[in-house]
UniProtKB/TrEMBL annotation:
It is an enzyme of class 4 (lyase). Its EC number is 4.1.1.20. Residues 93-332 form the Orn/DAP/Arg decarboxylase 2 N-terminal domain. Pyridoxal 5'-phosphate binds at G283, E325, P326, G327, R328, Y429. The gene is lysA. It comes from Brevibacterium celere. Pathway: Amino-acid biosynthesis; L-lysine biosynthesis via DAP pathway; L-lysine from DL-2,6-diaminopimelate: step 1/1. This is Diaminopimelate decarboxylase.
Length: 478
């Protein structure tokens, strides 16, 4: 074989950030929840349950939640913020609201509440889950850029503790509904402060060219404040800012906090009111691959407490009670998705051979890679491999070439049909964004602890999936 061809075939299509593994069977612990380990035989186990048993008893694909890990992360957030913003340090306390949109079901709502966190919702459906789980209304927030009359009415009936108002239209709508009910609605204003943060970067002068929030620079936020102050049926509790998602850079939060606190001081001065609360949003980044470097929870809390105290000193105001809204950072690391391999193909690319490993799910259970170019890692989960590591790409079963779950990873080259593959970090924005593309039913979420395993979301049956088609008259029992 001519040297240049041999060279081509031995080249690797691995991206530069992906290191060649010393031991392809080893787990990188920081990517996995804390009760996940690999046994000596290479079988991944979660809280003592081998995934081979999980696959046999519960099927694949399945999202597997390490429940104790989830609860521990919720408590860590609560404790870190309670500590950093504690009144003993001259601060006014802090609350953590779990962002339910990341992943919500009644079990999760209950665990979040038991851990002492509030719960953010952004639709009627999410509020119904919170209510059914027994979360008291005052612990619930309602977001959304286009809340319906039904949603606002439900929120007031439920006694939601904060409605984060997103537009001038919504102020009118909420006032009318509150007046009709003879109640006073608790309101925070969502302000866009011109900061847009992503991963390692932020833009301090972002165009406020987006559907969310009331813009600071155009004066819309000030106008909304005036409207809320002037209403007998709205109680003005504070301001809210959310600057992005999967953020590793603290400075975006610092700039946003400074701007929102400045606006708070202006509003309090202009209208002679007190605004007791400021919410700094969510977006705290997590580790999907070895290249991600999240800021430890305590460090982030301490830095935010510092900047809030400093800004308030400079403005000559009191320090408001702070809240934050992590979703991904609490739920994503606690979950992995378990798939079974169906077909394996070696494909020759310009830079070498890439092995396509096709599994029994795909963009219907994890659309983030296709939608946002998200990166994931994965591991062979049912055995050790003695083969050379190969560069693999995990793809789904859908009729779309963008149906990719893990773009680049090393795995033993002998990966074969019947093997199990586990993808960590799938707790957030996977099951909530699941869909029925190609009429594939959505997978369940299995909560696993030392005590056992139970569905907290059951796998969708064919009968359930097809029930919206009036023409489906043949049996759909499976
Ligand atoms: C999406 C969202 C969150 C949660 O974001 P994460 O990245 O999951 O932490 C919090 N607050 C608001 C307003 C959001 O839209």
């Amino acid at each position: 074989m001519p040297a240049h061809i041999a060279g081509t075939l031995h080249a690797t299509p691995a991206p530069v950030w992906l290191p060649y593994p010393e031991d392809v069977n080893a787990l990188l612990p920081s990517l996995w929840s804390r009760n996940v380990v690999k046994n000596a035989d290479g079988v991944l186990t979660v809280a003592g349950h081998p995934v081979t048993d999980i696959a046999r008893d519960h099927g694949t694909p399945t999202l597997v939640m390490d429940v104790d890990d989830f609860k521990a992360r919720a408590r860590e957030y609560r404790d870190a913020y309670a500590h950093a913003f504690s009144p003993e340090q001259g601060r006014s306390g802090a609350d953590v609201f779990y962002a339910g949109k990341a992943f919500l079901c009644t079990a999760v709502a209950r665990w979040v509440h038991e851990a002492g966190l509030g719960l953010d919702t952004c639709s009627l459906g999410e509020m119904m889950i919170a209510r059914a789980a027994g979360v008291p209304g005052e612990m619930v927030g309602l977001h959304g850029n286009n809340k319906s009359v039904a949603e606002l009415d439900y929120a007031l009936d439920y006694g939601v503790g904060r409605i984060i108002v997103d537009s001038l239209d919504e102020i009118d709508r909420l006032e009318t509904i509150a007046a009709a009910r003879g109640v006073v609605a608790p309101v925070m204003l969502r302000v866009t402060v011109g900061v847009e943060a992503h991963t390692h970067d932020f833009i301090a002068t972002a165009h406020e060219d987006q559907k969310f929030g009331l813009s600071l620079s155009s004066g819309m936020a000030a106008k909304a404040a005036e409207a809320v102050v002037g209403s007998a049926h709205l109680r003005f509790d504070g301001l809210h800012s959310h600057i992005g998602s999967q953020i590793f850079d603290i400075s975006g939060f610092q700039v946003a906090a400074a701007r929102v606190l400045d606006l708070r001081a202006q509003i309090m001065r202009t209208h002679g009111v007190d605004l007791p609360e400021v919410d700094l949003g969510g977006g705290f980044g997590i580790r999907y691959t070895s290249q991600d470097t999240p800021i430890p929870v305590e460090e982030m809390a301490a830095e935010l407490a510092e900047v809030v105290a400093k800004e308030c000193r400079g403005l000559g105001t009191d320090v408001p009670r702070i809240s934050i809204e992590p979703g991904r950072a609490i739920v994503s690391p606690a979950v992995f998705t378990l798939y079974e391999v169906g077909t394996v193909k070696e494909v020759h690319t310009d830079t070498g051979i890439r092995t396509y490993v096709a599994v029994d799910g795909g963009m219907s259970d994890n659309i983030r890679t296709a939608l946002y170019d998200a990166d994931y890692s994965c591991s062979l989960a049912n055995r050790n491999s003695n083969a050379e590591p190969a560069i693999i790409r995990v793809v789904g079963k859908h009729c779309e070439s963008g149906d990719i779950i893990v773009r680049d990873e090393y795995m033993g080259a002998d990966v074969a049909p019947g093997d199990l593959v586990a993808v960590p970090g799938t707790g957030a924005y996977c099951r909530p964004l699941a869909n029925n593309y190609n009429h594939v039913p959505r997978p369940g979420v299995l909560a696993v602890s030392a005590d056992g395993a139970e569905w907290i979301v059951t796998p969708e049956s064919y009968a359930q999936m097809l029930s919206t088609d009036p023409g489906m008259t043949t049996s759909t029992e499976t």
